[in-house]
Amino acid sequence: MRAIDTNVVVRFLIADDRAQADRAHAAILAGDIFIPTTVFLESEWVLRSAYRLAPIEISDAFRSLAGLPGVNVEDPALLARALDAVATGFDFADALHLGKADGCSAFLTFDRQLAKRAHRYPEMSVAEP
Fold first, then answer.
1. Residue 39: which of 86, 67, 84, 72 has the closest Cα?
2. In a 10 Å sphere around its CB, with 0-12 CB exposed, 13-18 middle and 19+ buried, how is residue 112 labelled?
3. For a 10 Å CB count at each end of the chain, is N or C smaller?
4. What stretches of the chain adopt beta strand conformation (E)?
5. Residue 89 region by backbone torsions, left for phi larger than 0, else alpha for psi between -120 and 50, else beta
6. Which residues have C-beta within 8 Å of that of residue 120, sequence separation ≥ 6?
7. Is the pLDDT assigned to residue 112 strictly greater than 80?
8. Cβ atoms 124, 101 nearer than 8 A
9. CB–CB of 31/1 below 8 Å?
10. If you ran DSSP here, which 8-state letter would residue 33 be given?
11. Contacts of 33 (CB under 8 A, 6+ apart)
12. From residue 93, how far is each of 7, 40, 83, 98, 111 by CA, in Å?
């Protein structure tokens, strides 16, 4: 199995460099690919901040990529839940943070927006320290 980096994901999805996009497509479509959660996290940030994609566009692209034959993701349930949360207006990184903190009694943050939206994770108490 071969793991891929953020730049390969971005080239695959954006294709703004034809030569690299072709190589990214060939590698991914050949299968036996692993995408770590951290690569999705960084890719979301790049696609949102540098390419100005809307969260739902990124979510749809990630679902398509993760659903390709031969593509394996580190934690499919975590990714799916985070992408579902994005569809309801939740921040992707925050959804991943809460998902990775599963089993903890509380998630402490100064981010009031996160605390306000955290009702989507009723099993986790989100509060200020």
1. 72
2. exposed
3. C
4. 2-3, 33-35, 71-73, 106-108, 125-127
5. left
6. 85, 88, 90, 95
7. yes
8. yes
9. no
10. E
11. 1, 2, 3, 4, 27, 70, 71, 72
12. 18, 9, 10, 9, 13
Whole-prediction pTM value?
0.91
pLDDT in tens, 64-85: 999 999 999 999 999 999 999 8
2 Cβ contact list (under 8 Å, min separation 6) = 27, 32, 33, 34
Percentage above 90 pLDDT, the chain: 74
Q: At what angle do helices 92-100 and 37-49 cross, to 10 degrees?
A: 160
Joined together, the tokens standing for residue 70 give 């031969």
Q: Residue with structure tokens 């949102």?
A: 48
* Sign of the alpha-carbon torsion through 74, 76, 81, 84: positive
Q: Which pair of tokens denotes residue 107?
A: 């998630």
